Amino acid sequence: MQQFDxxxxxxxxxxxxxxxxxxxxxxxxxxxxxxxxxxxxRFQDFSLMIYNNGELTALLPANKVDHEIxxxxxxxxxxLIYKPNLKSKEVIxxxxxxxxxxxxxxxxxxxxxxxxxxxxxxQTNNPLAxxxxxxxxxxxxxxxxxxLELKFKRYNRSRKNGYKRGLxxxxxxxxTDEFKSFWNEILIPNLDNKHDVKPVHSLxxxxxxxxxxxxxxxxxxxxxxxxxxxxxxxxxxxxxxxSQYISGNEDKNTLGSLDFLHHYLLEEVFADKKYFxxxxxxxNNGQNINEGLQYWKEGYGAHSITQGFYKIETSKYKHLEDIxx
Length: 325
Known about the structure:
Layout lengths: L4 E4 L5 H9 L10 H4 L7 E2 L2 E5 L2 E6 L2 E3 L2 E4 L9 E2 L5 H17 L4 E5 L14 H7 L3 E12 L7 H12 L3 E5 L3 H16 L7 H10 L4 E8 L2 E10 L3 E9 L3 H4 L1 H13 L5 E6 L1 E2 L4 E2 L1 H8 L4 E11 L12
Parallel strand pairs: 6-8, 13-14
Antiparallel strand pairs: 1-3, 2-5, 3-4, 4-7, 5-6, 8-17, 9-14, 9-17, 10-11, 11-12, 12-13, 15-16
């Protein structure tokens, strides 16, 4: 079996890391160091760079906690990032080399989360679930993303009626580079009142990330008589518009603000995208689904795609040696 060389990421390799991502089998900007490093004070980075005869071939964005490696606790997505033309046999060898490297360096487990297939350039080249099966990995969690393939969008009666209420109430949608009003007047109060939590990103953090990724991070607000009543923060990639945050004030159902907003996004702003990802409706580490939230998302024609979270014992890397016959 082919053996790959593993190097621990260092800041001096930032340009190499970022350049490789542009050529890899994924198209989200979350793995760019400018995004990963915004919360470097909270996570001990343990990202790996995988080489074949001196040529960078794959990456593993990761952080370390005690004797465990996570890919990556500070990111929505994870997994091995590699060139889109790699054969399955090479991907198997890469994961085997990574696990062997981790085992030899005292790391007992690798906690790895999938990158949903809609974010892959080559959606047929992703054997991670099979490799986890071979490694007897434990499925720790499974989330469902509500994802709309835009050519199949279809509004149910509730979504149509919500849009009509928005028209009747003379709502307007504006894109803005300003996040303060949405964060402080809509998002933070909503999350605090309903779930007793705060946004994953603070106001300062989202403004910092916007400055680093001005074209990929976009804010759309809904106004009623020039007062903000709802909004969404979109992370835009080549094929996917992903809703990072969606929130409206207590009058959102009466005004139809969220339906009005998403009609505008789906019909005008992102009509040429392949997918619109509403994100997950899971709670309790994937064990439950917020029925009302999922129903609302599926009212646009969205359907479920899975994202698995696996626990792999690094000592089992030899399980990947006997696959081919």
